[in-house]
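Propose amino acids for all 304 sites.
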C-alpha cells in the first residue's frame, strides 16, 4: 500500500480555510499562526499536485474547482477520523465489549477460574475472550494485536512488551510424606542435591529452576523430566525423587491420593514475578487497570 501523501492535520487546515474563507480566520480557529497554516496548505497542494485555493489579496481565498471536489472527500475523511478517535476512546475508557486475555499454560488453573467467575461477575458487560498458550505464543499474539493482555512470568517478557508485576513468586521443595526430611518446615537445597529430582520441563519453570541451582553453585541429579505439572507431584509423592515448583496448589494431595510435604527453601535464591504484559507503549486502558486491580487483590497473600 502506497504511503498517504497528507496528514489529518493538513486536512483539518484545508477544511478550516474553506469554511472561514480566509487564512487569518482559519488560523484563529485552529489556534495556529497564519504562516504555519499557509505552509501546511502549500505542502498539501504539493503532495496532491493540485491547487486547492486561489489567494486574492485583501479578499481572502476561494476554492478552485479541484479544491471544491476534494473538500467533500476531506470532510468524509475527517468524520471518519473523528469516529475512529471516539471508538478508541470508548474502547479505552469503558468496561464493555471484547477483552482478550492470554494466560501462560501453567498459570491457568490458578488465575483463569477466578477471572471467569469473579472478574466476569464484577464486569458483566465485558466479553471475555480467554486464550491459553506458551509464553512465546502469547508474546506474538500481543504484538499482532490478537489479545489485549497476557499473564506471564517476568522472565518471559521480551523488550517489545511492557510488564506490570502482580505478585512475587517464591519456589518451594516437595518431598514424599515418608521422606527422612518430611518432618521439617524448610530446607537448604544442598541437602537434597545428591537425590534424584523430578524436573518440570516447561518454560520458564525449567530455566528458572536451573537458574536457582546455578546461583547456589549446585548441580541437581535429574531423575526424571516431564512436561506435566501434576505428574511431578505424583512421582514425588511416591518417593521417586524431590521436586522444585513455583505454583502452589491449595491441597497437598496428588491426583492419585498420595500426600506431599512442602518445604520452604532457606537459601537466598532469585525470585520471579507474575504479571500482566502488553505491547510496549500501549496505554493502560480502564479494562487493563480493572483486571490489574482484581488480580492484585486475588493474589494478595496467596502464592501463585
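Proposal:
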Amino acid at each position: 500500500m502506497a504511503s498517504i501523501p497528507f496528514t489529518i492535520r493538513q486536512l483539518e487546515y484545508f477544511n478550516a480555510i474553506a469554511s472561514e474563507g480566509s487564512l487569518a480566520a482559519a488560523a484563529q480557529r485552529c489556534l495556529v499562526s497564519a504562516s504555519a497554516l499557509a505552509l501546511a496548505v502549500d505542502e498539501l497542494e504539493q503532495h496532491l499536485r493540485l491547487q486547492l485555493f486561489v489567494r486574492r489579496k485583501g479578499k481572502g481565498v476561494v476554492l478552485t474547482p479541484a479544491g471544491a471536489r476534494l473538500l467533500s472527500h476531506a470532510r468524509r475523511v475527517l468524520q471518519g477520523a473523528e469516529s475512529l478517535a471516539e471508538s478508541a476512546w470508548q474502547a479505552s475508557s469503558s468496561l464493555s465489549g471484547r477483552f482478550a486475555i492470554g494466560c501462560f499454560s501453567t498459570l491457568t488453573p490458578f488465575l483463569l477460574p477466578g477471572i471467569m467467575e469473579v472478574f466476569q461477575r464484577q464486569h458483566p458487560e465485558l466479553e471475555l475472550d480467554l486464550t491459553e498458550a506458551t509464553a512465546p505464543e502469547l508474546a506474538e499474539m500481543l504484538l499482532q494485536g490478537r489479545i489485549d493482555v497476557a499473564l506471564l512470568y517476568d522472565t518471559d517478557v521480551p523488550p517489545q512488551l511492557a510488564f506490570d508485576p502482580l505478585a512475587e513468586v517464591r519456589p518451594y521443595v516437595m518431598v514424599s510424606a515418608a521422606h527422612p526430611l518430611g518432618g521439617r518446615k524448610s530446607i537448604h537445597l544442598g541437602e537434597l542435591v545428591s537425590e534424584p529430582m523430578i524436573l518440570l520441563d516447561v518454560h520458564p519453570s525449567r530455566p528458572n529452576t536451573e537458574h536457582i541451582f546455578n546461583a547456589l553453585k549446585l548441580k541437581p541429579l535429574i531423575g526424571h523430566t516431564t512436561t506435566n505439572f501434576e505428574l511431578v507431584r505424583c512421582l514425588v509423592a511416591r518417593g521417586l525423587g524431590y521436586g522444585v515448583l513455583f505454583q502452589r496448589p491449595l491441597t497437598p494431595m496428588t491426583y492419585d491420593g498420595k500426600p506431599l510435604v512442602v518445604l520452604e527453601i532457606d537459601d537466598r535464591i532469585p525470585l520471579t514475578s507474575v504479571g500482566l504484559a502488553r505491547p510496549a507503549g500501549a496505554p493502560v486502558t480502564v479494562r487493563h487497570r480493572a483486571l490489574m486491580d482484581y488480580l492484585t487483590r486475588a493474589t494478595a497473600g496467596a502464592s501463585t
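The longest strand covers residues 161-169. DSSP finds nine helices and 13 strands in the chain.
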